[in-house]
């Protein structure tokens, strides 16, 4: 609480209700380790990934051959995006769409002949 709000919970002038309210409203960065990111943090990571990709595209369009394709920022939790190396190469047309759907977690592919 001291780090997030500047409130010392050991101070006798701070009520238990105040500690409870502040504890329930702690920002994600101040919570115990291992908790998932907030929606804002995920959006910022996505924004950083897009900015890195745009920078790479502009450098390549300007003729810079030393520019390397950026890797996405690692995300916490089970819904984390797979790194670019693990993704299959996209195929054109409906075949590519079907392959992307089949590669999603929790999707079961059933063939009917």
Describe the structure.
With about 110 residues, the protein is mainly alpha-helical. It folds into 2 domains: about 1-35, no CATH class; about 35-105, no CATH class. The chain is about 40% helix and about 0% strand. The chain has helices at about 1-5, 15-25, 40-60, 95-105. It starts with a helix and ends in a 10-residue tail after the last helix. Residues about 80-85 have low confidence and may be disordered.
Number of continuous helical runs: 4
* Total E-strand runs: 0
Instruction: Spell out the helices and strands N to C.
Output: HHHH
| Main sheet: strands, sense, barrel | none
Gyration radius from CA atoms, angstroms: 22 Å
**Structure class:** mainly alpha
Structure characteristics:
flat, 4 helices, single chain, 113 residues
Which helices and strands occur, and which strands form pairs?
Layout: H1 2-5, H2 16-24, H3 39-61, H4 93-103
Outline:
It contains four helices and no strands.
């Amino acid at each position: 609480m001291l780090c997030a709000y500047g409130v010392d919970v050991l101070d006798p002038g701070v009520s238990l209700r105040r500690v409870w309210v502040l504890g329930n409203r702690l920002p994600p960065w101040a919570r115990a380790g291992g908790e998932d990111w907030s929606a804002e943090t995920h959006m910022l990571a996505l924004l950083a990934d897009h900015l890195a990709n745009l920078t790479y595209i502009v450098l390549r369009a300007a003729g810079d051959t030393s520019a390397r394709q950026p890797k996405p920022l690692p995300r916490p939790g089970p819904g984390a995006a797979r790194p670019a190396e693990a993704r299959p190469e996209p195929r054109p047309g409906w075949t590519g769409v079907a392959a992307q759907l089949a590669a999603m977690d929790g999707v079961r592919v059933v063939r009917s002949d």
